[in-house]
Amino acid sequence: MAVTPLHRHSKVKRMVVSTYQAASGAGAAAMRELELQTKEVLEGKPPTTKIFSRQVGLFVVNYSSFDNDVRVTATCIRVPVTRPHAESINLQFENQLDEFLLNFLTDTAREILKRSPGLVVIDDRTANNFPTPLEVSNKDDVAASRIRRLVSQEGNYGLDIFVCGDQIREGAALNVVQIAEMLI
């Protein structure tokens, strides 16, 4: 959701994304298992693993994906929170960014994201204020933060962003309502 408005402004050539997915992404039974596993681990007992193939309670589970055709490298990590999901996104644009973006890259990206429906920018480095799963839970908007120039490659081709959003609202229930409203 945060990538689309930036892609419209300057075509994305490559994306590396790491997702941090809440237990609720695997359903209500998975949330109950997360709670049970956390209790069991804190009590020194072996965790129950019926829904998840391994311990998730107080643990991080890694899943990876790679697709040469799309030029997207994705890593999915299940984290021990009930909701929502978060993503670290690394973008490389097809062309060097124009002079305006070169000088004001992060401010311009912030402005593009601020104007995008369904997105809110929470990116206050001086106060160390960035979105957390707790703050965006049960909210419709996806929060974008840590917007910064990509310094790991030469040239002015890239941007790093962190987003966090309630996958039950945006990506599931809210989208159904929005589609129904368009049809009415």
Automatic annotation (TrEMBL):
Domain spans labelled Semialdehyde dehydrogenase dimerisation: 4-61, 69-169
Any one GO molecular function term: oxidoreductase activity, acting on the aldehyde or oxo group of donors, NAD or NADP as acceptor
One Pfam entry name: Semialdhyde_dhC
Gene3D superfamilies named among the record's database cross-references: Dihydrodipicolinate Reductase, domain 2 (3.30.360.10)
InterPro entries recorded: Semialdhyde_DH_dimer_dom
Top-level lineage group: Eukaryota
Entry's Gene Ontology BP terms: amino acid biosynthetic process
The protein, known as: Semialdehyde dehydrogenase dimerisation domain-containing protein
Organism: Pyrus ussuriensis x Pyrus communis
Classification of source organism: Eukaryota, Viridiplantae, Streptophyta, Embryophyta, Tracheophyta
